[in-house]
Amino acid sequence: MRRTKEESEKTREDLLNAAVRIFSEKGVARSTLDEIAKAAGVTRGAVYWHFENKTQIFEALHERLHRPFVDMILEDLEKDHPEPMVQLRDLCIQIMLDIEKGKQRQQTLILFFMKSDYSGDLAPYKDKHREKKAESMRLFKRYIEKAKTAGKLNTQADPELLTQCISCFMKGTFLNIWITRKALILKTKRLN
Amino acid sequence: MRRTKEESEKTREDLLNAAVRIFSEKGVARSTLDEIAKAAGVTRGAVYWHFENKTQIFEALHERLHRPFVDMILEDLEKDHPEPMVQLRDLCIQIMLDIEKGKQRQQTLILFFMKSDYSGDLAPYKDKHREKKAESMRLFKRYIEKAKTAGKLNTQADPELLTQCISCFMKGTFLNIWITRKALILKTKRLN
DNA sequence: CATCATACATACATAAATGTATGGTTAAAC
DNA sequence: GTTTAACCATACATTTATGTATGTATGATG
Predict the structure, then answer these.
(1) What is the per-residue pLDDT for A189?
(2) What is the pTM (predicted TM-score) of this model?
(3) How many alpha carbons lie under 13 Å from residue A4 in its C-beta half-sphere?
């Protein structure tokens, strides 16, 4: 039954959504293409039509996750905020809340943070994903540099180190969310 | 060739060490018992003698990792330090340095932090390991409570929240170590 | 020193997932 | 209105890991 162009694109999306669920439940390595296909309401034939293999599904998921984040930060950086550090804080909170809301994105994020060991067939993608990660780290750094040039930050402050610390704290928080399975209540008190 | 009691225990250790290597390289799910056996210089026969299956090797590794940490903290908590928060800071640094040194333990830690998705056969152990984690979290909390009762901390400080934050930061740091593969230089300047 | 249980190695049976090849149906192109 | 090719289902061959069953040599035990 030959489907229309839009229906074809829908099955592709269905397959990706199903992959997130199955990958999250059983891990990437233990997930079979048959499970993913059945979860999407199709057969393995459809999978092999849209993707080369399981690894390519994995790669497609990463692209679908990373892109919106970068766009979000880039758009936010355009704004001319009087207090860049407050802006950065708000961005972090916004990211947290976004993840809290979107279950799909949340699952995908946890998938790449926690459930991807980048071993075996996935090993080649470790460097690629790391580079993408470094890219968003540089975006974060720009907030701090903005604050520093605006004289809003101690002159001895090291933007690189601060960026690392923020990244560490947020990653650790995600880790705790995953471990405790309790949503953290973000107390949004003002900084000063 | 029947081995002596000590030799048998050595092959068991060899198998565990090999399992850490193989698990770290290829991930738990993708690792085969044959690889582990060969890396330890034996055959799968030895594996099935010492362990029920791959899951039990996984469990044995977790026990071997967690125990020394708990013992270390418990011993440290006995000491009567004048500044509990400094003591806690020193402990954190000590833990970091310990992991930096011991490659074996480092690999095992990364294995459980990053490479274990606790899916499939491993799912039942998620709660068990989480409970062990909570146990060490309570130990950390005792440092802060010590500081509070000693009047060394702000009365409004919430030990639970502070413990969570410290845990988040350390976990995030480990995550970054794994991702950047660059050893963090711990700046051990005094706090005040 | 005869026996037994330990500590493995080897062999096989089973299952399960992958890749590919092939078949079929129908949108789309002309 | 054909023809083509996209889109997917079905069938099969191959591989690979697992579990188990069995073989075997030796340290331990009386």
Answers:
(1) 34
(2) 0.71
(3) 2
